Amino acid sequence: MRISNFSNFNAVSFGTNTRRYKVGPENDVVYTQTKINREDIDFKNLVGLIFGSFKDKDKVSVYDMACSDGSEAYTLAIFLKEFLKDKKVAKFFPIIASDSDGIIITCAKRNKINITEDELKELEKAGIDYKKYFLPAKEKMYIPNDKISNDTETYMCCDELKKNIRFENCTILQQIEKMEKDEPKVVLCRNVLPYLGNRSDVLYNLLRLNNKMKQDDILVIGDFDRDFYIIDFLKKRDFKEIQNNVFVKTK
Ligand SMILES: C[S@@+](CC[C@H](N)C(=O)[O-])C[C@H]1O[C@@H](n2cnc3c(N)ncnc32)[C@H](O)[C@@H]1O
Q: Domain 6-249 in CATH: superfamily?
């Protein structure tokens, strides 16, 4: 069984940092990438939306499944802290960030992250002083199976940020098993679905996830996940797209 659109992925198309790893039932080798403030989500709008949707709740579980090196979880935590400064955001923490790749999660748990100059510039453009969150590490971190660009430096996450994220090494299905249907939740499951195998493998993961989601819960996907059958599945299960790649369960 081959990953359905596996041939679409190759290292060259990504440009900057890439990671090589094995996915799916046949252990296909693919190249992948993540980054801080990835452009397929308007994170500033997302945090406002999350806050508004759960303003009456005391605790909200936030899951970042297939989190890779933590870039996405850090982005969400930083945007929650920066753009909802005067609001009560502690109920969203810690973000539970998980990935099936043990090597990348080991690095994330050491609170180190490789960041490019462009990513830092993007944070600055958003009005964020990144130095509050990331400090240059003494040594560059070389991760097996990673190819990093020359403008990449290794940073340490500051204590204030690292306490907002809990990294776990598990698959999407294992993470779903640990979710409670009744807890109000936000689930990021982004830029990973086509890696899960063929169409029935992907739909199986989505079915299991849907079983744990209830009205008002939020699901966030990525541009890479926007295959027509995935969007169709979500629409048929009462997920309404309220912002690009952000879906709320309406029933
Ligand atoms: C392209 S990265 C996505 C990172 C981040 N979510 C983003 O959008 O930038 C894909 C990640 O999915 C992870 N992954 C692949 N299959 C997985 C599975 N079954 N369970 C958990 N993580 C998985 C890989 O290890 C990789 O870190």
A: Vaccinia Virus protein VP39 (3.40.50.150)
